[in-house]
Amino acid sequence: MDAPLITIEEPGSFAWRVFHERHPAMIAQLCAAHPFGPDVRDALTALLHETTAGVVKPLEDDALDHDVWSAWTAERIGRPWAESSFLWAESYFFRKLLAATGFFAPGPWRGVDPFAPMKRAELTNAATVETLKALDELAGLSSADRDAAVVRAAVWGNQADLAFQLSAGAGTEGAGPISGSSEEFWSLFGEPGPVHLVADNAAGELSADLVLVDRLLATGRAEQVVLHVKPHPYYVSDATPKDVLEVLHHLSGLPGEAGEVGRRVQDYLREGRIEVRAHPFFCAPLDFAEMPEDLRADFTSAAVTIFKGDLNYRRLVGDRHWPASRPFTDSVSHFPGALATLRVLKSEAVVGLDPDTVAALDAEGEPWRTKGSHALIQTSPGE
Ligand SMILES: O=P(O)(O)OC[C@@]1(O)O[C@H](CO)[C@@H](O)[C@@H]1O
């Protein structure tokens, strides 16, 4: 079954506004945060122009991923950006943005994460400080309440997404999930085995994810955890291997439970019980249904895979205008094993909802799919 792809063509639609409102704001923020010279600023202005009013142009750098991107873009070169799917266009936009800031070229900006100042600020802002302090309360909870709290923090941690906050502002935790529960999440775990977590944002969200990882290992539900992150800076705040180290460095210097978690996770890394991987496909403009064989084999070996966040969800179910009541298990039948998704809704694709829930949400007259005020937990036991 297929539904129409979400594209960036329709003026006023969510995807159109990401290109025409969010991206200009993001580029202004980058130029304020870094003393980029005229060459970089001109390249960023040209990128905005190309992606909002032009045709798709090839990459001009010779970075290591140049050839793979040539294959991913071949069919689209010379065609209007407006015709592109949202998923493809946004991914290529971020790849081109890195090229424009000199990330791949010899020179002073090589390897410099343009989003690092924003991620760093988020790690120490009031909301993150409060969330990390609240971890101290975990010790006084029953085991079941602790399980629920850790999952809730990991789900709502997904609200801390700096690309999203460029247009929506920082959010506050909403009501319970519109689908699923922490019990449903934990029921996926049987005999201890390798658990994979496909991370999303750095800073606050990654901190909450590491608390979940710590819980998985401490309770024996996971015997090893593989943490998948992005190989390059992406979607503003997505976590890279460097971000994992920065977050751990920060956590392990804190007092209380946050510090304990940070130091335990560092020990797990030293022992090889946590492994960090950054497969190039995590920055690909494609659905997970199209993942390469090596990554598929990796996921096949997992007892459970946890997908965090909005973008991973879009790539998992297909970034299309699905009927919201399409069964979640049908959408993820391409995936080789048991999985859970923990996501705050920040874009249009959604499946697996009860029709009454959809009717109630529609009746509120709010853009509930894109507002960042609703969360979901969806699971599939695999074959
Ligand atoms: O994957 P994440 O961090 O949860 O969300 C990514 C996101 O902010 O980017 C897209 C628009 O820029 C939307 O899909 C979504 O709101």
Automatic annotation (TrEMBL):
Ranges for domain Damage-control phosphatase ARMT1-like metal-binding: 19-356
- GO-annotated biological processes: DNA damage response
What is the protein name given in its UniProt record? Uncharacterized protein with ATP-grasp and redox domains
InterPro entries, sorted: ARMT-1-like_metal-bd_sf, ARMT1, ARMT1-like_metal-bd
Task: Enumerate the catalysed reactions.
Answer: beta-D-fructose 1-phosphate + H2O = D-fructose + phosphate; beta-D-fructose 6-phosphate = dihydroxyacetone + D-glyceraldehyde 3-phosphate
Q: Which GO terms describe its molecular function?
A: metal ion binding; phosphatase activity
**Keywords of this entry:** Hydrolase, Manganese, Metal-binding
Coiled-coil ranges per UniProt: none
Q: Which family does it belong to?
A: Belongs to the damage-control phosphatase family. Sugar phosphate phosphatase III subfamily.
Q: Which organism is it from?
A: Haloactinomyces albus
**Which PANTHER family does this chain map to?**
DAMAGE-CONTROL PHOSPHATASE ARMT1 (PTHR12260:SF6)
Question: Which cofactor(s) are needed, names only?
Answer: Mn(2+)
Task: Output the Pfam families linked to this UniProt entry.
Answer: ARMT1-like_dom
Q: Which domain of life is it from?
A: Bacteria
